[in-house]
Design goal:
Layout: H1 2-12, E1 16-17, E2 28-33, H2 39-51, E3 55-60, H3 68-74, E4 77-80, H4 85-99, E5 103-106, H5 121-129, E6 133-139, E7 144-151, H6 157-166
Parallel strand pairs: 1-7, 2-5, 2-6, 3-4, 3-5
Antiparallel strand pairs: 6-7
Helix pairs in contact: 1-2, 4-5
Length: about 180
């Protein structure tokens, strides 16, 4: 029921859903970019429902207040306190171990505003948990949402991040001027 509803809503909103890659893994870290609008959350959530991915997502802990907190947690939300960055990677690794096969969506830009650089926590989480990184795009220009590629970290952080960033562009963002290259 939820799958059909999400597919219908995306179609009504004019979005095309890109099929999952044939090598779609049972568990992954999903790198979602560009992230320049709160609408990204809803489009991404509808996508995961439309294709039947059981996923969670990281979100700034400021959003976890009553009455939103129980709703966000039920949807798979995991609060992140930005002042405790060193503990986030370990906490998410433990969550992935506890829940088994699942996907966790992370926006490497870390915020909807233009930043200095991408955060690398998503990469460290994937590597430490032995998971691939699925490259997901919310492309407002072409109104396409999907996972375009499954990437396996090589351990060369700089080279891997440069490759992953190359798969995204400002023109895909809802607000291109806010995209962190």
């Amino acid at each position: 029921m939820r799958k059909k509803l999400a597919q219908t809503l995306l179609r009504i909103l004019g979005w095309k859903v890109e099929a999952l890659p044939q090598d779609h893994p049972a568990g992954s870290v999903i790198c979602v970019a560009p992230h320049t609008s709160n609408a990204d959350f809803f489009i991404g959530l509808l996508f995961s429902w439309a294709v039947g991915i059981r996923s969670g997502f990281l979100m700034k802990s400021d959003w976890f207040f009553f009455p939103l907190s129980p709703i966000l947690r039920a949807l798979g939300g995991v609060p992140v306190n930005r002042s405790e960055r060193s503990q986030t990677v370990e906490r998410i690794q433990e969550l992935l171990r506890q829940r088994g096969e699942m996907h966790i969506a992370i926006t490497p830009e870390g915020t909807r505003k233009r930043g200095e650089k991408w955060k690398s926590g998503f990469y460290h989480i994937a590597q430490a948990a032995g998971l691939p990184i699925e490259l997901a795009v919310i492309n407002y220009k072409d109104k396409v949402v999907g996972i375009t590629e499954v990437f396996h970290p090589t351990g060369d952080l700089e080279r891997d991040l440069a490759y992953i960033r190359s798969r995204y562009s400002a023109e895909q963002a809802k607000y291109p001027e806010q995209f962190t290259p």
